[in-house]
From TrEMBL:
This is Ferredoxin. Signal peptide: none annotated. The keyword 4Fe-4S applies. Transmembrane segments: none annotated. PANTHER family: FERREDOXIN (PTHR42859:SF2), OXIDOREDUCTASE (PTHR42859). Its cofactor is [4Fe-4S] cluster; [3Fe-4S] cluster. Keywords: 4Fe-4S, Electron transport, Iron, Iron-sulfur, Metal-binding, Transport. Residues 46-76, 77-106 form the 4Fe-4S ferredoxin-type domain. Ferredoxins are iron-sulfur proteins that transfer electrons in a wide variety of metabolic reactions. The keyword Iron applies. One of its GO terms (molecular function) is 4 iron, 4 sulfur cluster binding. Gene3D superfamilies: 3.30.70.20.
Amino acid sequence: MATSSGEHSACACWRLVPCGNGIILEQEARRAGVLVAQWLRPAHVSMAHIVTEGCINCKYTCCVSVCPTDCFREGPNFLAIDQSECVDCAMCARECPAGAVHPSRAAPIGSCHFARINMELAMLWPAVRARRDRLRCADRWRSVRRKIHLLRI
């Protein structure tokens, strides 16, 4: 988003963009010199609940087992919430042992880009409707911060 001085806020660069055979964060694409088209940078996303960085490499699915609408989508090492399915009941946020699910309006500082990440990944990944075993490395990664570079699409 542009500020009154015309500069972009920190969250403006946290968008997923196509790159080769996959998708990467726009900030990483720019750092690597990949040209990013303006139309790939949509406006602010409003969501009820979002899964944030705490889920990366953990993927506890306690949140899935309490969701009344099956709004969770499953990727290799992360879960995302499909906003079109979420009814904002907040049951998932209370269940997550990693503390990774938050109302988007009260997400931790520096996590605003996860609204866009959840929206885009929810379109790519299949629904997960039942609790599954957490990743083997979950307990080791649970308290680690700054894991965005580990997100696998």
